[in-house]
Design a protein that fits this description.
single chain; about 80 residues; Thiol Ester Dehydrase, Chain A; about 50% helix; about 0% strand
Length: about 80
């Protein structure tokens, strides 16, 4: 089986509307994610994308792997959260 050397996630840039929709869905209304002025004062050029939104986009990238590679890569992943 040929394993791709790279994968490219094709996604539009995350903009204010997507950030606001994600904030509403997640309940995370931290102004660092929504207010450009707050983000600038914190040292960022623009609002910071929510971590879980970033992970959702990364999850889409992983699902682009050919199925046998995906299955093998996650064969030993825990199926249930483990207690600390």
């Amino acid at each position: 089986m040929n394993v791709p050397a790279t994968l490219t996630l094709r996604s539009a840039p995350v903009g204010p509307v997507q950030l606001a929709l994600f904030a509403a869905a997640s309940g995370d209304h931290n102004p660092l994610h929504l207010d450009p002025e707050v983000a600038r004062k914190a040292g960022f050029e623009r609002p910071v994308v929510h971590g879980m939104l970033t992970m959702a986009l990364a999850g889409r990238l992983l699902r682009m792997l050919p199925r046998p590679i995906y299955d093998r890569a996650f064969a030993n992943a825990p199926r249930k959260p483990r207690a600390p």
